[in-house]
C-alpha cells in the first residue's frame, strides 16, 4: 500500500561502501597500466622478450606457490602430530600471495610479487595485519557481532519472540530418536 508521498530512489537503496565504489575503477586502471607497460617494454625491446618475461613470471610463481603450499601442509601436519595449532602462517601467506602475483601476467604485478617474497617486508606486513585484526576484533566485541550472538531467539509467525535453548539428542546417554520409516517409491 502506498501513501502517495514521493520517495527518493536514494533513500530506498543502502549506501555503497567506498571499497565497492572504487575497487572496480582501481582494477580497471591497474589492467590498463599493465597493458600499457607491456606495450612500452615490447616497443623498446621485442615481443619475444615480453613473452619470455611473462613466461618466467608464471614459472617462478608456480614454483613459489608449490613450495609455500608444501610448507603450509608440513606445518599443519607437524602441528596435528603435536596436538597444537600451526604457527608462522602469515609469512607463508604472503609468500603464497607473492607467487600468485608473479603468475598474473603483467610487470607491475611481478614487481609487487617479488617484493612480497622479501622476508622483512613479510614481517612488517604480518605485524600490520595482526594489529588490524586485533583492532577489528576489539571493535566487534564492543557492540558489533558480539551482541548479535549473545542470545539465540526464535521468531514466531505472529512476530513474538520465544526465548529458549536447543536440546540435541545426538549426544551419548540421551534418549535416542525414533527411526524414520524407509522411503518408498
Automatic annotation (TrEMBL):
Gene Ontology terms, cellular component aspect? membrane
Q: Which domain of life is it from?
A: Bacteria
Q: Does the keyword Ligase apply?
A: no
Keyword annotations for this protein, in alphabetical order, are: Membrane, Transmembrane, Transmembrane helix
Keyword presence, Repeat: no
Basic and acidic residues bias (residue ranges): 166-185
A Pfam family matched by this chain, by name? FxsA
What ranges does the record give for the region Disordered, renumbered to this chain?
163-185
Segments spanning the bilayer are: 21-42, 48-65, 94-118
> PANTHER family, from UniProt?
UPF0716 PROTEIN FXSA
Q: What is this protein called?
A: FxsA protein
Give the originating organism. Answer: Streptomyces actuosus
Amino acid at each position: 500500500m502506498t501513501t502517495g508521498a514521493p520517495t527518493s530512489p536514494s533513500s530506498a537503496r543502502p549506501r555503497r561502501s567506498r571499497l565497492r565504489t572504487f575497487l572496480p575503477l582501481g582494477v580497471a586502471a591497474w589492467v590498463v597500466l599493465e597493458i600499457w607497460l607491456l606495450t612500452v617494454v615490447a616497443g623498446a625491446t621485442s615481443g619475444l622478450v615480453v613473452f619470455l618475461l611473462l613466461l618466467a613470471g608464471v614459472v617462478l610463481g608456480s614454483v613459489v606457490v608449490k613450495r609455500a603450499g608444501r610448507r603450509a601442509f608440513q606445518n599443519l601436519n607437524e602441528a596435528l602430530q603435536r596436538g597444537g595449532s600451526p604457527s608462522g602462517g602469515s609469512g607463508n601467506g604472503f609468500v603464497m600471495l607473492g607467487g600468485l602475483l608473479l603468475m598474473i601476467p603483467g610487470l607491475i604485478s611481478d614487481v609487487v610479487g617479488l617484493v612480497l617474497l622479501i622476508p622483512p617486508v613479510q614481517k612488517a606486513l604480518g605485524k600490520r595485519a595482526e594489529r588490524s585484526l586485533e583492532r577489528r576484533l576489539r571493535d566487534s566485541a564492543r557492540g558489533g557481532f558480539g551482541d548479535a550472538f549473545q542470545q539465540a531467539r526464535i521468531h514466531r509467525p505472529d512476530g513474538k519472540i520465544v526465548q529458549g535453548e536447543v536440546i540435541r539428542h545426538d549426544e551419548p546417554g540421551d534418549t535416542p530418536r525414533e527411526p524414520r520409516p524407509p522411503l518408498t517409491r
